[in-house]
Specification:
This protein is mainly beta. The chain has two domains: 1-17 and 263-281, no CATH class; 27-262, no CATH class. 12% of the residues lie in helices and 37% in strands. The chain has three helices and 13 strands; from the N terminus they run H-E-E-E-E-E-E-H-E-E-E-E-E-E-E-H. The protein has helices at residues 4-16, 113-116, 265-280; strands spanning 22-25, 38-41, 55-64, 68-77, 91-97, 102-108, 122-132, 146-155, 170-176, 193-194, 211-218, 229-239, 248-261. Strands 1, 2, 5, 6, 8, 11 and 13 form a seven-stranded antiparallel β-sheet that branches. Strands 3-4-7-12-9-10 form a six-stranded antiparallel β-sheet, with no helix packed on it. It is globular and about 60 Å long. 31% of the residues are buried. Residues 1-19 form the signal peptide. It comes from Luteolibacter rhizosphaerae. This is PEP-CTERM protein-sorting domain-containing protein. Keywords: Signal.
């Protein structure tokens, strides 16, 4: 019986670290996270009687692939081409799955004002996409008092994530519990992490404004039940001078989530008891 207490303490202590560094979401258990290829697009038409300076916008929402819910919102301020013609039709925001990544795009008809790089144009775009990790047998259920590390690749090769070009972009990530509540990101003193403000880890051959992001989220003493998720949000105001940068705002790929739990006070107490018993023998 003398060995029971140390064995019990060791078992309890090891259980606290069982999930330490354990991969909970990655390409092996969620291989179809970015497929099949799919899109949510808003292309606001020009209404009759529209004049220069009028904002034309719209919103589109719906399921995207197997795990995502997405919303694309945006439009343009009417401008003119070099002939004075208003040509802005079929220009809006798009959230898409490419098969290998999640894309926040500008939907652009080549015959539109954006395609012709007209004069006096301003485009306002916002994107939102939320993945719920509810694959049967692979559900992501969050534990209390646990740090969840989210790692993903960001491709901003078109330069639309560059805040020095007058684009006023924002690009954020939140981790959601089973009830859709955003949990804390301690390093950010809040729940929303601005990816643009992160120092991305360099990837060999990656273009500027691209790299690997590492973000930690921390659950509290209680957490809502249900499958957890990630929410990505983006926003940009694009002047005409930036439109030649391309139509992809950013692409997210290679998402992985690992758990790094904190040891509980109860387990630490048992370790202390076990140590005392060993010394008395």
């Amino acid at each position: 019986m003398k060995c029971c207490a140390p064995l019990l303490a060791a078992a309890l202590a090891s259980s606290c670290y069982l999930a330490n560094g354990q991969s909970l979401v990655d390409g092996s258990n969620y291989p179809g996270l970015f497929s099949p290829a799919d899109e949510i697009t808003v292309d606001p038409p020009i209404p009759e009687g529209a004049v220069l300076g009028t904002y034309i916008g719209g919103t589109a929402s719906g399921a995207l692939g197997t795990y995502w819910q997405a919303t694309a919102q945006g439009g343009v301020v009417l401008g003119s081409n070099l002939l004075g013609e208003i040509r802005v039709a079929d220009t809006g925001a798009q959230v898409a799955l490419s098969g290998s990544g999640l894309e926040f795009n500008i939907s652009n008809d080549p015959d539109s004002l954006l395609g012709g790089l007209g004069v006096g144009l301003g485009a306002t775009m916002s994107w939102q996409a939320t993945a719920t990790f509810d694959e049967p047998g692979e559900e992501l259920f969050l534990l209390p008092n646990t740090v969840y590390r989210v790692v993903f690749d960001v491709d901003g090769s078109n330069g639309l994530l560059n805040s020095t070009l007058g684009l006023t972009p924002s690009f954020g990530i939140e981790m959601l519990d089973g009830a859709g509540n955003a949990i804390d990101a301690p390093a950010e003193d809040g729940t929303l992490v601005n990816i643009i403000g992160l120092e991305l880890l360099g990837i060999i051959g990656s273009p500027p404004e691209s790299g690997r992001a590492v973000v930690d989220f921390q659950t509290g003493s209680s957490v809502a039940a249900g499958a957890a998720g990630l929410r990505f949000t983006g926003f940009a105001i694009l002047p005409a001078t930036a439109l030649n940068l391309g139509t992809n705002f950013a692409t997210i790929s290679n998402i992985s989530i690992t758990a790094v739990p904190e040891p509980s006070a109860l387990a630490l107490g048992f370790v202390g008891v076990a140590f005392t018993l060993r010394r008395r023998r």
